[in-house]
TrEMBL record:
Subunit: Composed of two chains; the small (or glutamine) chain promotes the hydrolysis of glutamine to ammonia, which is used by the large (or ammonia) chain to synthesize carbamoyl phosphate. Tetramer of heterodimers (alpha,beta)4.
The protein's name in its UniProt record: Carbamoyl phosphate synthase large subunit
Reactions mediated catalytically: hydrogencarbonate + L-glutamine + 2 ATP + H2O = carbamoyl phosphate + L-glutamate + 2 ADP + phosphate + 2 H(+); hydrogencarbonate + NH4(+) + 2 ATP = carbamoyl phosphate + 2 ADP + phosphate + 2 H(+)
Record InterPro entries: ATP-grasp (IPR011761), ATP_grasp_subdomain_1 (IPR013815), CarbamoylP_synth_lsu_oligo_sf (IPR036897), CPAse_ATP-bd (IPR005479), CPSase_dom (IPR005483), CPSase_lsu (IPR006275), CPSase_lsu_oligo (IPR005480), CPSase_preATP-grasp (IPR058047)
Domain ATP-grasp intervals: 133-328, 676-867
Length: 938
C-alpha cells in the first residue's frame, strides 16, 4: 500500500529531559523519524522541552516547540498547525503516557487527529500488568506466575499464594522505577509499599522471580499488510535479575539454540499481532530457562526503545526511520534499504560481526548510593563496540567506557582482594565484568564463578581465554613475540597499552612501532546489514585485524570530529548536538566529514550524518590509526567534551593539527596555575588559589588563601571530586580521598567566595573579533555546580556595571587565549565585583540552550570559524528572544532514594529543560527568585 496522502502534517512527541531510564536514544529516534517524514513531503512539528538535543533543532523539523510536555501544550499545537496525525512512539514512556492521557481527555477525537505507529489500546494492554498477563495466557504465551495487587492486603495475599523469591513490578513506570526483588518474607512489606507508591495507578504485579534465567530481546517491525520482520536478536550477558538497561548485551544472540530462537520469533510475532493492528516497531523481552529452554514473556513495548537505538546501530537498519514510514502507510517491500540501495526494507539484517553494549554508571556522583544492580535501572549511558568476535568487541567496549581502562583488565587496575571479588560477583555492580576477569586471574574456577553469577558458561570461557593469552604473553619480550601470536592478541582485542603492561618496561608507542614493523595493522570493515551478500553504499565502518581493508580513503580534504563517548553526568547529549553541527559545518564548507564515536544512542553515530562514520572507541590507539589511514586536514576536539579534549595532548605530540584553539592555549585554560598568571597579567580579579600534591601542602595553601576553600582535581569535567571545606581536618580528608580516586593528579585549592552570585558568559572568537553569545545569571549561589543551577538568559538582576565587566573580561580572555571557536567563562559576583572562576575554550553545556533560546545556530557558526572558512563579520546574527529563557536542571534522585539531595560543587543533574517567561512577574520565576534570596541571606 502506498503512503496515506491524507496525512499532511504530523506531530512527534519527544521524551523531554534526559533522566535515568529515558536517555538520548529517544532523541535519536525522534530525529530520524522527523527527517524520514520530511522526505515524504509531510510537514513535521516536534514538541520537546529539551534544549540540549539536535531533535529540537530547526534542521530536524519544520516547527519545533520547546514547551512543557503536557496535554495542554499538545492541544495548542494541534490547533496552531492543523495537525492530521500524531506519532507518539518515538518519545519513550513520556510520549506514550501523554498520548494515552490525551485520548482519555478526548483531545484526539476533538481535533480529528489520528494516532499513528501504535494503537492507544495497545498502550493499555502492554502497560497494565494484569491486562498483559491475561493477554499472554489467552494467546498461549508463557508468563511467570503472578497476581495483580491494588492494595497492601491484595499484595500480601498474592505473595502467600505464589511463594518466594518474588518480583514487584509497578504499572506505568519507566526504567523499573519502584520495582524490586523480594527474597524473603521480612523484606516484602517495604518492597510492596515502594511499588504501590511508584505506580501512578497504585497498582503492582506480584510475580514469581525467575532469577538466573537467561534474558533476550527481539526488535520487530510490522507493516499494514501484517508483514513482520525481526531486525535483531539481543542476548543479555547478565542473567535475569538485572534491568536490561544495566545489563551488558550482545547481538546477535550467542548462546541461543536454533529451535529456541525460532520459537521465540513465533511468540514475538504472535504477541505483536495480539496487542493491536498498528504498523510500526516493537521491542519484546523474553526469559529462557537455561536447563530446559522453557520460554516466558517478560514484556512488550509498542514503541522504539533503548534497544531499538542499539539494534539500529548494530545492524545498520534504521528502525525509527522505517517505522515512521510504516506509520504513514508504506509496506516493508515498498521501502528501500538505506544501506544497500538495491534491496527492500523487507530483508532481515544479517550480521557477520558481534556487537557488545556495556552500560556506563555514575555512582561516584551519588555518595552513599546503593550500587547493587537490580530491577531499577541506574546507568546513565552506554557504549557499543563492534568486533569480528565477542571477545574483541568486549575489549573494545571496555576501552570505550571512559573509566580509564585499557580493555578487560591487563592494565594495572585489578582487584586483588578475593573477599571483595567474590562479594562483587554475588552482588553485581558496575565493575562485575572486571571482577570476573580478576577472579579468573587469581585462579577461581570457571564453574565457581558460573554458580555465583549464573552467567552462561560460554561467555565465561571466552573471558578465561584472555587470562590464558596473558599468561602466554608474559613468556616473551617485545622483540621475540611471534607474529602469529601478536596477530592473535590483536584479534582478541588487546590494546597496545595492555600488551605493554603485560610485557613490563615497554611503552605503548614501542608496542605500536613493533607491530607496525611486523605488518600488523587495523583494517576496517563495512556495516552493511547483509553480511556482504549485496554491495553496500553507506560508509559505516568498524575496525578489526584481518587482511582486507574495506575503507578506501578519498583524495578530498577531510575533517575528523571526535565524539564525546558515553553519556554521563557532566557530559551529556549537548556535546553530541555540538558534534552533529560540526559535521554539518564541515560538509557545508566543502570538507569530507568523518565521525569517530562509540555511543549508540546518539545522532552523531547515525550512518548518514557524516560522510564517513567509524564506530570506534574514542581511545588513542583507535583514533591514531584512523588518522593515519584518512590523513585529515585536522581534527576537531572542541565539540566532544572532556573525552575529545583529553585527546588533544596526544594529537599535539604527534604533530596532528587541532582545528580551532591550539592545544597550548587550551592547556593554559585547564592549568589553574598558568590561567591565574594570565588573569593577573590581564588585571582580571580571581579568587586566591594554590596548588598542592599532598595533604600537607594543601593545608599550607588553604591557610594562605583563607577558609572556606574549594578543593578540586585539575583536568576534570562536571565538578568531579569537588568539595567545599572550612577547616584543616576536613581538608586533609578531602585531599587524601581525591588523590586516592585520581592518583597522579594535582589538587587545586581556591578561596571560596561565600554568598556570591554565579554568572556565565559564552562567546565565539575568530582570533580577532569576539561575539558574546549570551550572559546568564544563576538562581543558585556560587558553590552549586553550574550544571545543577537554574540559569536565566539574559541576566535579571545584575547591574549594568557587572554585565559590562563580564563582557570586557570575556573579550580580554578570548583574545589572550587566542581562541578560535567557543569559550565559556564562569564568574562569581560579590559586592559588585566580578571574579573569574574558570574558562573553558570548548563547547559548553550552555551553548545549545542559548542557541535555542535566541534562535541562532551558534555551534554551526563557531565550527565554520574553527575551520577557517569564515570570520565573525561574515555572519548577520539576529536574536529573537522576547522575555527570558530559563535552563532547568533535572535530576534522577528517584533511582537513589538513599542519597542526600543537597546540591554542591559536584554536578548531579542528568538533564535539562528550557522554559520561557515573558517577564519577571511570572509566578514560576518569582518562586525561584524567592528561594534564591533566602539562599543568599543565610
Amino acid at each position: 500500500m502506498p503512503k496515506d496522502t491524507s496525512i499532511r502534517s504530523v506531530l512527534i512527541i519527544g521524551s523531554g529531559p534526559i533522566i535515568i531510564g529515558q536517555a538520548c536514544e529517544f532523541d535519536y529516534s525522534g530525529s530520524q523519524a522527523a527527517l524520514s517524514l520530511k522526505e515524504e513531503g509531510i510537514e513535521v512539528s516536534i514538541i520537546n522541552s529539551n534544549p540540549a538535543t539536535i531533535m529540537t533543532d530547526k534542521i530536524i523539523a519544520d516547527h519545533v516547540y520547546l514547551r512543557p510536555l503536557t496535554v495542554d501544550s499538545i492541544e495548542q499545537i494541534l490547533i496552531e498547525r492543523k495537525i492530521d496525525a500524531v506519532l507518539p512512539t518515538m518519545g519513550g514512556q513520556t510520549a506514550l503516557n501523554l498520548c494515552k492521557e490525551a485520548e482519555e481527555r478526548g483531545v484526539w477525537e476533538k481535533h480529528g487527529v489520528r494516532v499513528i505507529g501504535v494503537d492507544v489500546a495497545a498502550i493499555e494492554k502492554t502497560e497494565n500488568r494484569e491486562a498483559f498477563r491475561q493477554l499472554m495466557v489467552d494467546i498461549g504465551v508463557g508468563v511467570a506466575p503472578s497476581k495483580i495487587a491494588n492494595s497492601f492486603l491484595e499484595g500480601k495475599e498474592a505473595a502467600q499464594e505464589i511463594g518466594y523469591p518474588l518480583v514487584i513490578r509497578p504499572s506505568y513506570t519507566l526504567g523499573g522505577s519502584g520495582g524490586g526483588f523480594v527474597h524473603k518474607k521480612e523484606e516484602f512489606d517495604a518492597a510492596l509499599k515502594r511499588g504501590l507508591e511508584a505506580s501512578p495507578t497504585h497498582e503492582v504485579l506480584v510475580e514469581k522471580a525467575v532469577l538466573g534465567w537467561k534474558e533476550y530481546e527481539l526488535e520487530l517491525l510490522r507493516d499494514t499488510n501484517d508483514n513482520v520482520i525481526i531486525i535483531c536478536s539481543i542476548e543479555n550477558f547478565d542473567p535475569m535479575g538485572i534491568h536490561t538497561g544495566d545489563s551488558i548485551t550482545v547481538a546477535p544472540a550467542m548462546t541461543l539454540s536454533d529451535t529456541c530462537y525460532q520459537e521465540m520469533r513465533n511468540q514475538a510475532i504472535k504477541m505483536m499481532r495480539a496487542i493491536g493492528t498498528f504498523a510500526g516497531g516493537c521491542n519484546v523481552q523474553f526469559s529462557v530457562n537455561p536447563d530446559n529452554d522453557d520460554i516466558i514473556a517478560i514484556e512488550i513495548n509498542p514503541r522504539v526503545s533503548r534497544s531499538s537505538a542499539l539494534a539500529s546501530k548494530a545492524t545498520g537498519y534504521p528502525i525509527a526511520k522505517i517505522a515512521s514510514k510504516l506509520a504513514i502507510g508504506y509496506n516493508l517491500d515498498e521501502i528501500e534499504n538505506q544501506i544497500t540501495k538495491t534491496t527492500s526494507a523487507y530483508f532481515e539484517p544479517t550480521l557477520d560481526y558481534v556487537i557488545v553494549k556495556i552500560p556506563r554508571w555514575n555512582f561516584d556522583k551519588f555518595k552513599g548510593a546503593n550500587m547493587e544492580l537490580g530491577l531499577q535501572m541506574k546507568s546513565v549511558g552506554e557504549v557499543m563496540a563492534i568486533g569480528r568476535s565477542f571477545i574483541e568487541a568486549l575489549q573494545k567496549a571496555c576501552q570505550s567506557l571512559e573509566i580509564g581502562r585499557a580493555g578487560l583488565g591487563a592494565d594495572g587496575k585489578h582487584n586483588r582482594s578475593i573477599e571483595e571479588i567474590m562479594h562483587g560477583l554475588e552482588h553485581p555492580s558496575w565493575n562485575r565484568l572486571f571482577l570476573i576477569k580478576d577472579a579468573m586471574s587469581m585462579g577461581v574456577p570457571l564453574e565457581s564463578i558460573r554458580k555465583v553469577t549464573r552467567i552462561d558458561k560460554w561467555f565465561l570461557a571466552q573471558i578465561q581465554e584472555l587470562v590464558q593469552l596473558e599468561t602466554e604473553l608474559k613468556r616473551y619480550s617485545l622483540n621475540n613475540i611471534p607474529k602469529e601470536f601478536f596477530f592473535t592478541l590483536k584479534q582478541k582485542g588487546f590494546s597496545d597499552i595492555q600488551i605493554a603492561y603485560l610485557l613490563g618496561n615497554v611503552t605503548e608507542d614501542e608496542v605500536y612501532d613493533r607491530r607496525k614493523s611486523l605488518g600488523i595493522r587495523r583494517v576496517y570493515k563495512m556495516v552493511d546489514t547483509c553480511a556482504a551478500e549485496f554491495s553496500a553504499q553507506t560508509p559505516y565502518y568498524y575496525s578489526t585485524f584481518e587482511e582486507e581493508n574495506e575503507s578506501i580513503p578519498t583524495d578530498k580534504k577531510k575533517i575528523i570530529v571526535l565524539g564525546s563517548g558515553p553519556n554521563r553526568i557532566g557530559q551529556g547529549i549537548e556535546f553530541d548536538y555540538s558534534c552533529v553541527h560540526g559535521l554539518l559545518a564541515a560538509k557545508e564548507s566543502g570538507f569530507e566529514s568523518i565521525m569517530i564515536n562509540c555511543n549508540p544512542e546518539t545522532v552523531s553515530t547515525d550512518f548518514n550524518m557524516a560522510d564517513k562514520l567509524y564506530f570506534e572507541p574514542v581511545f588513542w590507539e583507535h583514533v591514531r590509526e584512523i588518522i593515519e589511514l584518512e590523513n585529515p586536514v585536522g581534527v576537531i576536539v572542541q565539540l566532544g567534551g572532556q573525552t575529545a579534549l583529553k585527546m588533544a595532548e596526544k594529537l599535539h605530540e604527534n604533530g596532528i593539527k587541532i582545528i580551532g584553539t591550539s592545544y597550548n592555549d587550551m592547556d593554559v585554560a585547564e592549568d589553574r596555575g598558568r590561567f591565574s598568571d594570565l588573569l593577573k597579567e590581564l588585571e582580571i580579579p580571581y579568587p586566591k588559589y594554590g596548588v598542592a600534591e599532598n595533604a600537607e601542602e594543601a593545608i599550607v595553601v588553604a591557610n594562605e588563601v583563607g577558609y572556606p576553600v574549594l578543593v578540586r582535581p585539575s583536568y576534570v569535567l562536571g565538578g568531579q571530586g569537588m568539595s567545599i571545606v572550612i577547616n584543616d581536618e576536613d581538608l586533609e580528608k578531602a585531599v587524601v580521598k581525591l588523590l586516592g580516586d585520581l592518583p597522579g593528579n594535582r589538587v587545586l585549592i581556591d578561596h571560596f567566595l561565600d554568598r556570591a552570585e554565579e554568572t556565565e558568559s559564552d562567546s565565539i572568537c575568530d582570533g580577532e573579533d569576539v561575539h558574546i553569545v549570551g550572559l546568564m545569571e544563576h538562581i543558585e549561589p556560587a558553590g552549586i555546580h553550574s550544571g545543577d543551577s537554574f540559569a536565566v538568559l539574559p541576566p535579571f538582576s545584575l547591574s549594568a556595571k557587572v554585565m559590562e565587566s563580564m563582557e570586557t573580561y570575556s573579550k580580554k580572555i578570548a583574545r589572550a587565549l587566542n581562541v578560535i571557536g567557543l569559550l565559556n567563562i564562569q564568574f562569581a559576583v560579590k559586592d559588585e565585583k566580578v571574579y573569574v572562576i574558570e574558562a573553558n575554550p570548548r563547547a559548553s553545556r550552555t551553548v545549545p540552550f542559548i542557541a535555542k533560546a535566541y534562535d541562532v545556530p551558534y555551534i554551526n557558526i563557531a565550527a565554520k570559524i574553527m575551520l577557517g572558512v569564515n570570520k565573525l563579520k561574515d555572519f548577520t546574527i539576529e536574536r529573537k528572544l522576547e522575555g527570558y529563557a530559563i535552563k532547568e536542571p533535572v535530576f534522577s534522585y528517584d533511582k537513589f532514594p538513599e542519597v542526600p539531595k543537597e546540591l554542591g560543587p559536584e554536578m548531579k543533574s542528568t538533564g535539562e529543560s528550557i522554559r520561557f517567561i515573558k517577564d519577571l512577574e511570572d509566578p514560576y520565576f518569582r518562586k525561584l527568585y524567592k528561594d534564591k534570596s533566602m539562599y543568599l541571606s543565610k
